[in-house]
Amino acid sequence: MKLLSANKQLLVFSFLILLTACTNKEWSKEYGDVDIADEKQTENWLAYGRTHNERRFSPATDINAGNVADLKVDWFMDLPKDVGLVSTPLVVDGVLFFTGTMNIIRAVNAVTGELLWEFDPKVRDAIHGRRQAGMVHNRGLSYSKGKIFFATWDGRLIALNADNGEEIWSAVTFDPDRALYITGAPKAFKDKVLIGNGGTENGPTRGWVTAYNADTGEEAWKFYIVPGNPADGFENKAMEMAAKTWTGEWWKHGGGGNAWHGFTYDEELDVLYIGTGNGSPWNRKIRSPDGGDNLFLCSIVALKPDTGEYLWHYQTTPGDTWDYNSNMDIVLADLKIKGKDVKAILHAPKNGFFYVIDRETGKLISAEPFAETTWASNVDITTGRPVEIEGARYENEPADVMPSPWGAHSWHAMSYSPATGLAYIPTLHEGRNFSDEGFNLKEWRVVKFNQHEKGVNLSGLEKPPRPYPASLQAWDPVKNKLAWAIPQEHFWNAGTLTTAGNLVFQGRSDGIFLAYDGQTGKILWEFNTGLGISAPPITYKINGKQYIALLVGFGGAYAGFSSLEAHQLGWAYKMHMRRLITFSLNGTVELPKLPPPYIPKPIVDANFIIDDTLAKQGADWFNTKCFNCHGYGMYSGGMAPDLRASPIPLDANAFKMVVKEGLKNEMGMPSFPDITDDELETLRHYIRKRGEETLPDYKQLDEIAVVSNN
Ligand code: CA
Question: How far is the CA of 277 from the centre of ligand 1 (A)?
Fold first, then answer.
């Protein structure tokens, strides 16, 4: 070797580097189920919940309880076109992938923040003129063997080449003229990709999930969540069994059960778990008038991953009538319970009980309330069934019930740390009054497709259960009790991340991003991002340096349907720059300041003479088609413009161009080609009326703050 010239030595050296690079590249393409299930690696974030176990726990300890106070911005990326950001990014070999508003996918250098590629599935064209449920936000994507998988609002499942963002295949998972939608991440496992959809509130629907071939996009199998009309025959034995738990003519209402979020692949046991949704409609008296559990609503259903065959189920809310779906995270943990090793599922669905289930058998191990549960006193461990509280089903009269249909826990990620043995739950503390008085239950049918027709009326409770609407809770699944809880002033806080550095990270809807001591809940670090946070953070490690990344952009259903409370957070549409922010211990970047929280002021036009009859008709239209994004009572939560403060409805022509002709399709505003000029006029009258009605109560945020301080 001594005889090799310097040039030749260089050549050999270059060849070796090239070989190493090629080897790494090939190796990265092979990240499959075993790699995705690997809890030990700290470099990547390969699945929605980091690994197949969905724990959102990283063993990285570089950033830890001792030094997290030094966490600073390392790089950020402005996202001026985005609105609600609720997504969990993925990190694969130094590239960070995320889904933004209108399902735009970006790949970014995870060290520098440089944009590598962007893929636009052109949702604006797909929604044009269709019946839309209005869901511009999306929670994430899935990775396997060099491909990125994601699904669009209008129901397409798409595979991209992770290297360059080129489309490999695209599959239509439902007819885009149906008022269904997808906001969830698909699940890649065993060379297949699973996806479901949402829409139980938007029309009669029979929920299902489909698995597609990851290489070709061809359908591999399909599993229905609720039975169809028995006269048509059953697809399988599971549906035949499920049909025995329904009464009346449920199939005419669809039944529901849509799987819009929690999918977990158990690589160790080779089982797929899906979390299922509530009934369609909500009120069981309509859906299944003589009672019944209504399988497989509000359940965890275990399926064979190769064929989609039913294995077992555990139903958390039999005969649901409160929207207590079980779509929430399905987290896999290995626990020691009473001296016995248990392969467990941890699950904290909307209904307020924390479930520990033996995932080898589907048997319930424990279920204790982690929030106020006035619909059931407890869960009977022998039968596995909840012990319901009389009257909670609003059988004979209206009932105050907790949790509210927002749930004690929604899709905001729960994490689980095997180091502390605790699950970290973004918890909500609200209730609702449920009433179906005045409904003709026998004749009830969805008539105004696309609105929230539930067969029950809801109103707020006179007295909230606690002085605060939310908390971050640490739950011990072995002792079945709360380890610690931090009360929070505002509703709808984001999902959690936990690490072996004894840390829990969570962003709040008021824009503060925090790190807590995992064992005690003590606040160790906080950072004001300047905008409400709805997405969970992730962590990854490149060249020995640990990063924490977070999408900042208030969003999700609470920001869309909104309410006066969501509106008063002050995250007015397009006022605050959406961002991807990445932190490290030696970051040096200053974030450009954002404007303070802001409440749009309703416009009143003295020349616009409001006709109350027209306004009333306009209200009907608004409450059918518009409030999903523009807010309940027209109080926008920031997902779409506050119509009371927009100049567009003042101009009949401009209004027509936006609503009928689709001028703002690109921003996520669907077009309504069939709307008549008369209907447009009624909407304008209603918008002006709401502007006038709400102006006397208008206050800018500092005034609100002063009032609440008094
Ligand atoms: Ca629901």
Answer: 6
